[in-house]
Design brief:
Elements: E1 2-10, E2 14-22, E3 33-38, E4 44-48, E5 54-61, E6 65-70
Antiparallel strand pairs: 1-2, 2-5, 3-4, 3-6
Length: 71
Amino acid sequence: FFFCALSAWAQNIGGSISGQVLDSQGLAVEAATIELINLTSGQKLETISDRSGRFVVPSLPQALYRVSASK
């Protein structure tokens, strides 16, 4: 899958990660599993992409995250 993720930090407290999952033809991937791993704490979070392949994970503590998508 092709994957695009953006992050934004709010008031140096935390933020969110959002993006869109696309296949090799540029089409949205519905119901892809998005996994985020906080590289500091090891905490894992998951969400699922919507019909347009988009996802949002809000209220994250500041950290570096590894983000992956699978279907």
